[in-house]
Amino acid sequence: MGKALEPTDEFFRRRDEWRKHSMLTNQFRHATPGLRIVVVAFGIYAAREIAYNKIYAPSHTSPRSH
What we know:
The chain is mainly α. The chain is built from 3 helices and no strands. The chain has helices at about 5-15, 25-30, 35-55. The longest helix has 21 residues, at about 35-55. The chain starts with 6 loop residues before the first helix and ends in an 11-residue tail after the last helix.
């Protein structure tokens, strides 16, 4: 199967177990559960708004009425 762990390998494996604890991984993703969908929705809205303003931009050649 695999080779047996050396005493130093076992020591470091146990020392690094805290890094894989569920309370320490993916904290930002769980803290902001709807952030991804909001960012995507805002990006789509902003892109459509820019496209709309480019297509239907008011003309700036109207004479002034002084």
